[in-house]
Specification:
The protein is built from 7 helices and 9 strands, in the order E-E-E-H-E-E-H-H-H-E-H-E-H-E-E-H. The chain is of the alpha/beta class. The chain has a single domain, classed as P-loop containing nucleotide triphosphate hydrolases (Rossmann fold), CATH 3.40.50. A hairpin with a 2-residue loop joins strand 8 and strand 9. It starts with 9 loop residues before the first strand and ends in a 6-residue tail after the last helix.
Length: about 230
């Protein structure tokens, strides 16, 4: 008896993106399945953010085929909360009016901010603001969640707490996830696969569970990035 293989939620097939005469994405191929967490690493300027923006529908591609779910959301490095709206209204943006408050409250409960629903964004810490941004993304039950270095501006302890929260939320909601990060340890800790980009192409694709150890994978990833540990 054959077992049906779930089709990828995201399929990028030889996609190309140019800015003037500069080609940023060079016939790039990538697939992500529903419930799979992929971390994307690479040197600055290699095309990570361009790829994320293309998947988010914020940027067009100039060639190749790109298939993404209609239901997708992005969490950026900056929380991008609207300061003139209370927290719950930021979470409930564009939700149907009749259920907006209750759905926003449920999402805030999930990120541990149920008592901040009527607070103003200016009163939140950096970690709290990013938790609100996560609630806003997940309240829509996306099939694709895009994370653009959402923890980069947080202190070390807050980042650790956010990592645990993200793991729990993603295991519960099971979107396909792409995390863009410069932090190799973060990528290994969170992801099912760590993908290295170089000059607009996928240079390597590692399944974390297949690595002999996190330490050996870390060494390999740093070598792919051209970093030699002292």
């Amino acid at each position: 008896m054959s077992v049906a293989v779930e089709a990828p939620a995201v399929r990028a097939a030889k996609i190309v993106r140019r800015y003037g005469e500069r080609t940023v994405l060079h016939e790039l191929d990538l697939e992500i399945r529903r419930g799979e967490f992929v971390a994307l690493i690479g040197k600055s300027g290699c095309g990570k953010t361009t790829l994320l923006r293309a998947l988010a529908g914020l940027d067009l591609v100039d060639g190749g085929g790109l298939t993404v779910p209609a239901a997708s959301t992005v969490v950026f490095q900056e929380h991008r909360l609207l300061p003139w709206w209370k927290v719950w209204r930021n979470v409930a943006i564009n939700l149907p009016r009749g259920t907006a408050r209750s759905r926003a409250q449920a999402a805030l409960d999930e990120v541990g901010l149920s008592d901040h629903a009527d607070a103003w964004p200016v009163t939140l810490s950096g970690g709290e603001a990013q938790r609100v941004a996560l609630a806003r993304a997940l309240v829509r039950e996306p099939e694709l969640l895009l994370l653009d270095e959402p923890f980069a501006a947080l202190d070390a302890l807050t980042r650790i707490k956010m990592h645990g929260l993200v793991r729990n939320l993603i295991s519960r909601h099971r979107p396909a996830v792409l995390l863009v990060t410069h932090d190799v340890d973060e990528a290994i800790s969170l992801a099912d696969r760590v993908v290295t980009m170089r000059e607009g192409r996928i240079a390597a694709d590692h399944r974390v569970a297949d690595a002999p150890s996190p330490a050996s994978l870390r060494t390999q990833l740093l070598a792919e990035l051209g970093v030699v540990e002292q």
